[in-house]
Write a structure and sequence with these properties.
The complex is a heterodimer of chains A (302) and B (154). With 302 residues, chain A is of the alpha/beta class. Helix content of chain A is 36%, strand content 15%. In chain A, helix 1 (13-28) packs across helix 9 and helix 5 crosses helix 6. Chain A starts with 12 loop residues before the first helix and ends with a helix. By secondary structure, chain B is mainly β. In chain B, 13% of the residues lie in helices and 36% in strands. Chain B has a five-stranded antiparallel β-sheet, with no helix packed on it. The mean pLDDT of chain B is 89. The chains are: A alpha/beta (302), B mainly beta (154). Chain A binds chain B through residues 7, 82-84, 101-106, 108-109, 123-127, 191, and chain B through 111, 113, 115-118, 120-123, 139-145.
Chain lengths: 302, 154
């Protein structure tokens, strides 16, 4: 059976750990010719330069060839071709499909059609599992463990898919504590809180972004986007509340690290960048190793 | 006894087969489609816009020489949750059944999420029922929840 990666929950805890192990191996030795003679389709039905470059770098470092498109403008989709037909055709050409699509569920559907494995590089607001795995790898690298961590999530917890997926994945590990900091309009959806309660995991919700972060091992920042607010006045009220500034880190633990899926706008002040607790740029680099690991695992090359 | 006589007058009895009663009148034809009754050769009689204390206006279907598997009949639970089945052998009701919401639902309901791929390309919808008490179905594709309030039958 082919191993697609569509949602973070497609993997078991053992598979998370296997990816972590492989990512560490690729970090030591990023250039490995495992994809020699193989063709990987990189299908970006909506532009995402950061994710695409990360994937294409990972494929290149594995010695694979890339076919595909960076946005629909340069594909047959503009001629009205269905996703079904595009995937059917490409899965005859390539050994693996990496795809990003603006519609939710598109990757799951593609995986059903495709004869070769599909890796979801983001389907609308639904899932972006490779981001979650690179977040986990960053946590493991900086904390030395995925157990017993106090994880603070800040900003848009309602629509932030990276937050939801990371929460689901980390809830598989031992004894996590979650602290959620968000405005009323962007609170974590009830279904995720229910999931934590069912698993007996402690969590706390806060409106204020204050020195409560002194207990954190990980601070996961997200963007508060203007278009999420029905009322622009509400956005104006909160837009400057959920900003992390350098001096807020003074009383935090020495092991704490700041993560952000990037791109950031203003939610992390640039004066945090030179702080040793800032980790978001290294986090992006970890994405290469993690994606190499996911590709190798998906194609049974490791 | 009086009620039974009235019913018999409205839709004639069958010798062998299944009677599906207490279908909301407005969903009669959807039930027919879902069960594929428009594609079989059996004798079928139905009555609709019959008075019902519970439903206001109900429909009843009698299918001769046909007995449904639970999986098959449970497909109508979303649109006829109070449906009652009488299994008839030689004019006698030998078994009564109620419908139950199945754990998987295919192709009957539209996903609530306008950005779901199933609402944008010709795909059969698929849901996992995560709650039956207050209906909640998780889309197999976009993973969003469709509830009773947003239920839209295709």
């Amino acid at each position: 059976m082919k191993k697609d990666l569509i949602s973070i929950t497609d993997y078991t805890k053992e598979e998370y750990l296997r990816i972590m192990e492989l990512a560490a191996d690729f970090e030591k030795n990023p250039n490995q010719d495992l994809l020699k003679g193989k063709v990987v389709a990189s299908l970006f039905f909506e532009p995402s330069t950061r994710t695409r470059l990360s994937f294409e770098t990972a494929i290149s470092r594995l010695g694979g060839r890339i076919i595909g498109f960076a946005d629909v403008g340069s594909s047959s989709v503009t001629k009205g071709e269905t996703l079904h037909d595009t995937i059917k055709m490409v899965s005859n050409y390539a050994d693996l499909i990496v795809m990003r699509h603006p519609l939710e569920g598109a990757a799951r559907y593609a995986a059903e059609i495709s004869a070769v494995p599909v890796i979801n590089a983001g389907d609308g607001a639904n899932q972006h599992p490779t981001q979650t795995l690179l977040d986990m790898y960053s946590i493991l690298k900086t904390q030395g463990t995925l157990d017993n961590l106090n994880i603070f999530m800040v900003g848009d917890l309602k629509y932030g898919r990276t937050v939801h997926s990371l929460l689901m994945a980390m809830s598989e590990f031992q004894n996590p504590i979650f602290n959620f900091i968000a405005p009323d309009e962007l609170l974590l959806p009830e279904e995720y809180k229910m999931h934590l309660r069912e698993k007996g995991i402690r969590y706390f919700e806060h409106r204020e972004f204050t020195d409560i972060i002194s207990a954190a091992d990980i601070i996961y920042m997200t963007r508060v986007q203007k278009e999420r607010f029905a009322d622009p006045i509400e956005y104006e009220k909160v837009k400057n509340v959920y900003i992390l500034r350098g001096k807020m880190l003074e009383n935090t633990k020495s092991n704490v690290r700041i993560l952000h899926p990037l791109p950031r706008v203003n939610e992390i002040h640039t004066d945090v960048d030179k702080n040793e607790k800032a980790y978001y740029f290294e986090q992006a680099l970890n994405g290469i190793f993690t994606r190499e690991a996911i590709i190798a695992y998906t194609l049974n090359l490791k | 006894m009086e009620e039974i006589i009235k019913k018999k007058l409205k839709v004639s009895a069958i010798r062998n087969g299944t009677v599906i009663d207490h279908i909301p009148a407005r969903n009669l034809f959807k039930v027919i489609t879902i069960l594929g009754l428009d594609k079989i050769e059996n004798q079928i009689t139905f009555g609709t816009n019959l008075e019902s204390e519970k439903l206001g206006s109900k429909a009843i279907i009698k299918v001769s020489d046909k007995y449904f598997e639970d999986d098959e009949i449970n497909k109508i639970a979303l649109i006829a949750p109070h449906a009652k089945l009488n299994i008839i052998h030689d004019y006698v009701v030998t078994e009564k059944k109620v419908v139950e919401i199945p754990s998987q639902i295919q192709g009957i309901v539209r996903c609530v999420n306008p950005k779901c791929i199933t609402n944008n390309e010709s795909i059969t919808t698929k849901f996992t029922v995560v709650s039956k008490a207050s209906l909640a179905m998780k889309c197999h594709y976009c993973e969003k929840i469709t509830d009773q309030e947003h239920l839209h039958i295709l």
